[in-house]
Amino acid sequence: MTSQIEALIDEIEEYISNCKYMTLSNTKIIVNKDEIDELLRELRMKTPEEIQRYQKLISQRETILADAKKKADDLINKATIQTNQLVNEHEIMQQAYAKANEVVTMATKQAQEVLDRATIEANQVRASAMQYTDDLLANLEEIITQASSLATSNYNELIGNLNSCNGVIKANRTELNPSEDDGIESISLGNEEPDGGGLKLN
Question: What's the pTM value of the predicted model, to 2 decimals?
Answer without folding.
Answer: 0.41
